[in-house]
Amino acid sequence: MTYSIVAHDPERRQWGVAVQSKFLAVGSVVPWAEPDVGAVATQAYSNPRYGPQGLALLKEGLTAEEVVDRLVSADDGRDDRQLGIVDAKGGSASWTGGGCLDWAGHRTGPGYAAQGNILVGAETVDALAETFESGGGKPLAVRLIDCLAAAQAAGGDRRGQQSAALLVVERDAGYAGLSDVLVDLRVDDHERPIDELRRLYRMHDLLFGKTPRGEWLPLAGDLAGEVAGRLARLGYDSLESWASVANLEERVAGNESIDPVVLEALREETP
């Protein structure tokens, strides 16, 4: 009753998992990832221990294929499990037990493992794989959401939709540079969980994304006066104080220039 994709972006050194299911809060069970180690999706009659155990084995230097073999060979319930893994180098492997309900199967390629069970058909997993393969250049989070959307359009979970989740990790790239979790979004119960996941990601990118400093605008002349006037009308004496209330503090650095995203948000908030 689930389809997922586990993936690696070697250029950005990111690992991630995206998943959708007719299951409450699928993000609490399926996705696991650690930067410079790999990522794991455990589903069907999920064994949640595959997550931490798989990451621990990857950290020891085992390949994705070796980790899949190690986990399923030690599990008496393997026939009812489904598992996808990508390792630190982008090697991938999947397992679909013979007891998983039709349609169930997987597809792997460089940097990704796609898998699903209780699906309309193989076209759902094919859509995950083909969308990922054709999505180079986009941020990994965007590619993974696109994969879910394409899989749903191709048929998706035979029982329908309920929840979705996105997890992307990168060393020291999370909040304030003090977390390895770049994105961790969950839609636990929704009629259109993939659409809601995309909406949440856009909000996440607004608040925590990064505009290249070369694209920031100098806070001088008329623009400096405009910003100061707007802040004054809102009752703030500095850009930093307003941004901290607006949850945009990650996009503010000093008073010499301004992120265009911050400027747009400030203009939207003031008359």
Number of helices: 8
Strand order of the largest sheet: 7-8-1-2-9-10
Major sheet size, sense and barrel closure: 6 strands, antiparallel
Helix content: 25-40%
Order of helices and strands: EEEEHHEEEEHHEEHEHHEH
- Residue runs with pLDDT of under 50 for 5 or more positions: none
Using the alpha-carbon principal axes, give the shape.
elongated
Question: Could you say what the CATH architecture of the largest domain is?
Answer: 4-Layer Sandwich
Mean pLDDT: 96
Strand content: 25-35%
Helix/strand/pairing category: alpha+beta
CATH topology of the largest domain: Glutamine Phosphoribosylpyrophosphate, subunit 1, domain 1
Which CATH C-level class of the largest domain is it? Answer: Alpha Beta
Number of strand segments: 12
Q: Separation of termini?
A: 49 Å
**Rg of Cα set:** 21 Å
CATH homologous superfamily grouping of the largest domain:
Aminohydrolase, N-terminal nucleophile (Ntn) domain
